[in-house]
Specification:
Elements: H1 24-28, E1 60-63, E2 66-69, E3 86-94, E4 101-109, H2 115-118, E5 123-133, E6 142-152, E7 157-162, E8 173-179, E9 206-209, E10 212-219, H3 221-229, H4 245-251, H5 257-260, H6 285-293, E11 297-305, E12 314-322, E13 327-332, E14 345-350, E15 385-388, E16 391-398, H7 400-409, H8 441-449, H9 460-465, E17 470-477, E18 493-499, E19 504-509, E20 520-526, H10 543-546, E21 552-556, E22 559-566, H11 568-574, H12 585-596, H13 599-609, E23 616-618, H14 619-627, H15 635-645, E24 652-654, H16 655-663
Antiparallel strand pairs: 1-2, 3-4, 5-6, 5-10, 6-7, 7-8, 9-10, 11-12, 11-16, 12-13, 13-14, 15-16, 17-18, 17-22, 18-19, 19-20, 21-22, 23-24
Helix pairs in contact: 13-16
Length: about 675
């Protein structure tokens, strides 16, 4: 076996069965006879008299972690002789003057290095060509293929990979898996000389592997240096390093000039003018078209408006034109929830005629019909309409590759995309059913929107705060707006209550004797729709509709009412608590003068309540003095009185001026 330097010292050597000193014959005598010097007894038999070590015999051992079979060697090896520490390390250097490779050997004592350690990851690389015959082609009698042969030094295995070439028609890539290649079919697995080795690649231009002849054309730099170090020569030169992917992209030129010229066809050797044939009948036409235009597809977007017919609609399509074989494919674009059957292809990939001419005759192929009868790339243009089996499809757009193709191949620029008008889609709406009068209207409509109705939600905090907030108005029927008014309807009076907690309205009619009308509840408490709206609008009368300046007209269940006046609570709520401006101060003064009477006694009482003797009283003291008399003033009137006499806005009242104003007040 080889070491890390491929050619290393042997791992074992045969041991001689004879010893020096003229006793070789005695050593070979191991049987009873007259030539024995010692008796033939147990312990008296010696094969080698000079041998001092008697190890236990075995046929398998490990040396430096590598197992080997001693039985294959055919001899017994002493353990002391199995340790070899002398190896040869070769160093490759380049002469600075000549530039040639030179070899320098440095021998030194070093531990043994097995082959799989020194040769691990070292692979020889060869480039080879092979020629395959193509009998089915007239224009291409043979096809050249290029391979890369990898030779792994660690186990003498070979792997062959075919270099990829676009549109070659072969399964490229891994050509032969990595394994040891035998020279013949009856090679023995125990004889390494019957397998392909390094010597088979030296001084030759070709190599035979499984009956295939590979022409060696080159190798890499490492392979050349390896053969030079080991004293072997190669007949092939070392190839230049392959350029990187970025260098290839920089050097690669555009191939748009190929589009401008059609496929090149040559005449046959026999003077036959192939130009008279159709393009599809020329030799190699389809192959050349495939090699030049494979994977090049023109893509247009079309619209078929079929709304004029019964149950017609707008259909959007994607039209693919394959340059390799002039075939057309029409795919239908389906949107979400369109309700159409999932048939994505309107027309499969085929040649589409410009006008439907019926079925072709028996035995007539597609290529036999003139190319002008089918849709070609020159017939496709944005903004034009094409006929595909009776359907008028408008081409409204195309992709960027299609525009670039027409600019380079025909020097023609496709028109801009056609802007399709956006249509307003009106979806049908299901109307709510009318209210039948069972339960509340909210409960009835809840069963329309949900299979399991949910109760109306309410705000508990709002209900607790607005539970006692009720607005009341005194009203009468608006005679000008009544269609059928009675002679006594103008005398009727009503009390309209509005409940803030649930925006409901109740109408009560006070009973009047001998009026001819039964007093009592005129309208049950309920939510009232705004006059002139339908049930689908769901607009109800709110507090904003009720809290308006008086008199105010409002219609409740087709009855026109005129709100005349409201109670004090409604007035205070509407004016946000400030009703001083709504009350007359002279009327309040006259009311105090009438109820108190003795103005001198009032002055003495106010003066006695004064503490600082400066002629003013605090508002709290002033209100307490007035509450000691029966003034019959409510809370709003007291607030209006205090707001008027607190002229300096400092919380005090000049009681002297207050008493003089009461004395000078006259009834209105």
């Amino acid at each position: 076996r080889r070491g890390s330097g491929w050619m290393s010292a042997p791992m074992s050597r045969p041991i001689s069965t004879a010893t020096s000193g003229g006793r070789g014959d005695l050593a070979l005598t191991n049987a009873p006879g007259p030539n024995r010097a010692v008796p033939f007894l147990p312990g008296m038999s010696y094969g080698l008299p000079g041998k001092k070590r008697f190890p236990k015999s075995h046929i398998f051992e490990f040396k430096v972690g590598v197992g080997r079979s001693l039985g294959v060697m055919g001899t017994e090896v002493d353990p002391m002789d199995r340790v070899i520490t002398t190896t040869t390390n070769r160093t490759i250097m380049r002469d600075e003057t000549t530039g040639s490779l030179i070899q320098t050997d440095f021998s030194k004592q070093a531990p043994f290095e097995p082959s799989f350690v020194g040769l691990e990851g070292k692979v020889l690389r060869f480039v080879a060509d092979m020629t395959d015959a193509v009998p089915e082609s007239l224009s291409e009698p043979y096809h050249e293929r290029r391979f890369t042969i990898f030779y792994y030094l660690v186990d003498d295995s070979i792997q062959i990979v075919e270099q990829r070439k676009n549109n070659s028609g072969y399964m490229q890539g891994l050509f032969m898996k990595r394994h040891k290649v035998p020279r013949a079919a009856n090679a023995s697995a125990y004889n390494e000389s019957e397998f392909v080795s390094l010597q088979d690649f030296a001084e030759t231009d070709n190599i035979v592997i499984y009956g295939r002849v590979f022409l060696l054309t080159g190798c890499n730099q490492f392979t050349e240096e390896f053969y030079c170090v080991n004293g072997l020569s190669l007949s092939m030169p070392a190839l230049e390093p392959e350029p990187s992917w970025r260098e290839e992209q920089e050097q690669r030129q555009t191939a748009t000039d190929v589009w401008k010229t059609g496929p090149v066809t040559t005449k046959r050797p026999d003077d036959f003018d192939s130009a008279r044939l159709k393009p599809s009948q020329r030799a190699g036409y389809k192959r050349e078209r495939f090699l030049k235009f494979n994977n090049k597809v023109l893509r247009f977007f079309g619209l078929w408006d079929d709304r004029k017919s019964m149950f017609g609609d707008k259909h959007f399509y994607t039209i693919n034109y394959f340059l390799a074989d002039d075939a057309l494919e029409v795919l239908e674009n389906h949107g979400k929830n369109e309700g159409r059957d999932p048939f994505p292809k309107l027309v499969k990939k085929s040649k589409v005629p410009k006008s439907a001419f019926g079925l072709q005759g028996i035995g007539v192929a597609t290529d036999d019909v003139s190319d002008r009868a089918y849709i070609q790339d020159k017939d496709l243009q944005v903004g034009q309409t094409i006929h595909i089996y009776g359907r008028k499809i408008l081409l409204y757009s195309c992709d960027a590759f299609t525009r670039h193709f027409y600019e380079t191949a025909y020097d023609y620029e496709q028109p801009p995309d056609v802007q399709l008008p956006k249509e307003l889609i009106e979806f049908p709406q299901q109307s709510e059913p009318p209210y039948q009068g069972f339960g509340t209207e909210e409960d009835s409509i809840a069963s329309f929107y949900r299979l399991v109705p949910k109760g109306a939600q309410f705000d508990a905090l709002k209900q607790s705060e607005l539970d006692k907030v009720v607005f009341r108005w005194k009203a009468k029927l608006h005679m000008d707006n009544m269609e059928h008014a009675g002679p006594d309807d103008s005398k009727r009076r009503f009390v309209i209550s509005f409940f803030m907690v649930d925006q409901t309205i109740a109408v009560y009619e006070p009973p009047v004797s001998n009026s001819g009308f039964v007093g009592g509840k005129f309208l049950e408490r309920q939510r009232i729709r705004t006059h002139g709206t339908t049930k689908q609008d769901c607009k109800y009368i709110t507090d904003k509709d009720m809290l308006q300046d008086l008199p105010h007209a409002i219609t409740i269940n087709n009855y026109p009412f005129l709100l005349l006046e409201c109670d004090r609570f409604t007035l205070r709520y509407r004016n946000k608590g400030n009703i001083a401006s709504l009350l007359s101060i002279d009327e309040l003064h006259y009311k105090l003068q009438k109820n108190i009477g003795d103005m001198d006694g009032l002055f003495v009482t106010l003066q006695a309540a004064e503490q600082e003797r400066d002629g003013v009283l605090h508002l709290d003291t002033f209100v307490q003095v007035l509450e000691g008399y029966e003034t019959q003033l409510d809370e709003d009137e007291i607030l209006a009185l205090v707001h008027y006499w607190d002229k300096s806005q400092d919380g005090t009242v000049n009681y002297g001026e207050f008493v003089e104003a009461l004395r000078s007040t006259r009834p209105q």
